[in-house]
Amino acid sequence: MTDLALIDELMTLVEPGKVLTDAASLDAYGKDWTKHFAPAPSAIVFPKSIEQVQAIVRWANQHKVALVPSGGRTGLSAAAVAANGEVVVAFDYMNQILDFNEFDRSVVCQPGVITQQLQDFAEAKGLYYPVDFASAGSSQIGGNIGTNAGGIKVIRYGMTRNWVAGLKVVTGKGDVLELNKDLIKNATGYDLRQLFIGAEGTLGFVVEATMRLDRAPNNLTAMVLGTPDFDSIMPVLHAFRARLDLTAFEFFSDKALAKIMGRGDVPAPFATDCPFYVLLEFEASNEEVANDALATFEHCVEQGWVLDGVMSQSEQQLQNLWKLREFISETISHWTPYKNDISVTVSKVPAFLKDIDAIVADNYPDFEVVWYGHIGDGNLHLNILKPQNLSKDEFFAKCATVNKWVFETVEKYNGSISAEHGVGMTKRDYLTYSRSPVEIEYMKAVKAAFDPNGIMNPGKIFAVE
């Protein structure tokens, strides 16, 4: 724990009132969306400038105080949880868009800029920021960079990594580095910018980011299709990708849809009950594209891959169809789900899911299992819902016993134990299923170079030694 004298010294580094130690603030800022670990920070500090962040990091090095970054706290791997008396560095007041370059299609953001804030800014300029997910209204750009956030448009636009033109960071030593200087082409040795993307704050803090924008999409249109079984989904993906440039290809199970329908605020896509559903999106830039989509739908029906479907005819209908997918995570959170965020190459998805499904069925026969995810890029979300008769700790313990078999299957298919949620603390002990021991040693050496005193988000990605 950090003693009172150190907290008093910390208060001198930022503006008055920007260090909080009350119980409500410690609880709110010491956690993310995970429920595995109880928050126990010693203080929350709110810097408003790069210089203040630098002063905080140097103070932490001097006194060997651990720091945990906090953004929108929407993470799902406990990467932003302060469970051991750390000081939380919250970037809520570094939330400005600092510059816009219309020729380069780029925006300079502070780390506390909300994802939707950037999306809205881009839209006002006639452009588009394509990294999108259900938590866009509360997640922050710094956190997105720290976890290399993916979301629903990866099949077309890639991960956050693809949209970071440059970074300004404060390293674990307290140095300020300007990485890549927003260049498209830069062949001058190691690209340190890429090390910080996905590092979960373990190397240092992102204090400024230049984000690239794209042209605005033209008449986005969505289709929701019902399939008779999971094996039909991949032929549907292949059929549509052969004729359309898809911006999204998502799937969810009938159990996921039932939870959404139970909310009562989203209409059913159609009357036919199906075990699995696909949501795909494309730009219907002209009538020919829309006709191609309908012709592909009819082909899929003739092949028996699709039982029913609907295509959006308005912006409102487009939004309603997306709610069927985007509301799932929030809706099932009431059941305290145990989440696995796993991925393989797209071609391996059907066999991989069958293997995982068999493990789940054998070991969780009494648990409700909800499948959904970004199947167009090989990312599956396995959610096991907590029964009412089990405590949270009992439930998580039962789920953890099966993780070994789930992750052995991930390893068998050369997949990832964390496709887009990061490692944090929830996946830390399973890292060896996706990374070799030699790789992990190199990763630890990189951390030691940037953070020799081990103060930057310790215990995340790998355990403190």
UniProtKB/TrEMBL annotation:
<keyword id="KW-0560">Oxidoreductase</keyword>
<dbReference type="InterPro" id="IPR051264">
    <property type="entry name" value="FAD-oxidored/transferase_4"/>
</dbReference>
<dbReference type="Pfam" id="PF02913">
    <property type="entry name" value="FAD-oxidase_C"/>
</dbReference>
<dbReference type="InterPro" id="IPR016169">
    <property type="entry name" value="FAD-bd_PCMH_sub2"/>
</dbReference>
<feature type="domain" description="FAD-binding PCMH-type">
    <location>
        <begin position="37"/>
        <end position="216"/>
    </location>
</feature>
<dbReference type="Pfam" id="PF01565">
    <property type="entry name" value="FAD_binding_4"/>
</dbReference>
<keyword id="KW-0285">Flavoprotein</keyword>
<dbReference type="InterPro" id="IPR006094">
    <property type="entry name" value="Oxid_FAD_bind_N"/>
</dbReference>
<keyword id="KW-0274">FAD</keyword>
<dbReference type="InterPro" id="IPR016164">
    <property type="entry name" value="FAD-linked_Oxase-like_C"/>
</dbReference>
<dbReference type="InterPro" id="IPR016167">
    <property type="entry name" value="FAD-bd_PCMH_sub1"/>
</dbReference>
<dbReference type="InterPro" id="IPR016166">
    <property type="entry name" value="FAD-bd_PCMH"/>
</dbReference>
<dbReference type="GO" id="GO:0051990">
    <property type="term" value="F:(R)-2-hydroxyglutarate dehydrogenase activity"/>
</dbReference>
<keyword id="KW-0479">Metal-binding</keyword>
<comment type="similarity">
    <text>Belongs to the FAD-binding oxidoreductase/transferase type 4 family.</text>
</comment>
<dbReference type="GO" id="GO:0046872">
    <property type="term" value="F:metal ion binding"/>
</dbReference>
<dbReference type="InterPro" id="IPR016171">
    <property type="entry name" value="Vanillyl_alc_oxidase_C-sub2"/>
</dbReference>
<protein>
    <recommendedName>
        <fullName>D-2-hydroxyglutarate dehydrogenase</fullName>
        <ecNumber>1.1.99.39</ecNumber>
    </recommendedName>
</protein>
<dbReference type="GO" id="GO:0022904">
    <property type="term" value="P:respiratory electron transport chain"/>
</dbReference>
<dbReference type="InterPro" id="IPR004113">
    <property type="entry name" value="FAD-bd_oxidored_4_C"/>
</dbReference>
<comment type="subunit">
    <text>Homodimer.</text>
</comment>
<keyword id="KW-0862">Zinc</keyword>
<dbReference type="InterPro" id="IPR036318">
    <property type="entry name" value="FAD-bd_PCMH-like_sf"/>
</dbReference>
<dbReference type="GO" id="GO:0071949">
    <property type="term" value="F:FAD binding"/>
</dbReference>
